[in-house]
Each structure stands twice: as C-alpha cells, then as structure tokens.
Amino acid sequence: MMTEEEELKLPANVILIDVAYLNFMIGDMKRYFERKLNRTLQQIDLALFIEYLAMDVKYQVGDNETQVLLIYNNENTKIVNTKPSDISNELDGMAFSGDLGEFIFAGVPCEDMVTIDELVLDILRVVIDSTEVQRIIVLAADKSYDAEVIDLLDTVENKEVIQYRMNESTDRISYHWELLVFPVMQALGIQPDEI
Asked: CA dist 123 to 7, 38, 63, 127, Å?
C-alpha cells in the first residue's frame, strides 16, 4: 500500500490504472477475439503490456522512471488474464526494467469509506497536482465517472496527458487519447493480419 510520503515523491511519469476498468476491458476483448479468431489467446505478460502502453505514447529509450498506480477494490484484487496478476502479493512494491526504463508498481486499495470512482478521482488529483510529474497516462474511463475524468484531465497544464479509452469521447477534449484495444491485442498475441 502506498503511504502519503510515497504519494508526494512521484517520478516524472505516472500510469494510473483503475483495475476494475482494465479487468472489464481485457476480459471483454479476450472473449470477443477468441470467438472472432476461433482460438484461445495467451495470457498477458503484464510487464510487456505496460511497455506496449509506453511505446504507444512515444516513450524514448532511456532511464525513464514510471510509477504504475494500480487502484483496486475487494472485487478486483487481481488483474485478469495476466501474469503476474495478484496486486497485493505479486505486484505491489515490485518493479521491472527494460529499454524504456524502470516501471514500479504500487497497489492502492479502496477502503470502505470511499467508492472506487472517488478514489480514482482523488489519486488523479494528487498526480495532476504533483510538480514532479510531467507525463500522466490514464486507464480509467468507466461510464459512471468518465465525465469527471475528462474534466480533470482537461484542466492539466504543462504536463503531457494521455488517456487510454475504448472509444472516442463524445465530448471535445484538449488532451491526447489512444485506443486501448491495440496494446491489449498486442499483449494477447493477436497479429495484425489476423483481423
């Protein structure tokens, strides 16, 4: 679990993930593409998936440091169809390094006093307000709080903001967005010529 001190010492890059949203998207896409391709798809290597997200947003090879914040509740303590998957036992406090730098995982559990939506928005505000953070990558677009995420991200100045979405926002947004389907497809081992 992340302490207040750790929240204040964020690196230049932050990937904020609502695990419930990611679980829904991975599960939904895996079922759809298994039916469409008539084959079983591989489990996702979580480190590789995170690197695909970073490559999509033009990370440069180098010593980048990225904090990956996994916001989860009691119903979503694991990231489905990934390895590793258990947030508190396998991911929290762990890291991996590659050509794009070091990626450090931190689990942020949702306590009973707030909803997962409220916690995601609160953590997003902390990340936005951090003077150290220069790039914010967001995987959180549940319909119940999508408008609030958009409103928050639209206020960000002097930082690069990217939101991974399943589809284009119906609202006009001032920041950059990417389709989540492409990195998920890569991570599931789907080749472009199969589609």
From this structure: 9, 40, 25, 6
pLDDT in tens, the chain (195 residues): 545 444 458 999 999 999 999 999 999 999 999 999 999 999 999 999 999 999 999 999 999 999 999 999 999 999 999 999 999 999 999 999 999 999 999 999 998 888 899 999 999 999 999 999 999 999 997 677 888 998 999 999 999 999 998 887 666 788 999 999 999 999 999 988 887
Whole-prediction pTM: 0.92
Q: Where are the domains of the chain?
A: 4-194
Candidates 83, 67, 87; CA nearest to 26 is 83
Per-residue DSSP letters for 132-181?
S--EEEEE---TTTHHHHHHHHHT--SSEEEEEESS--SS--SSEEEETH
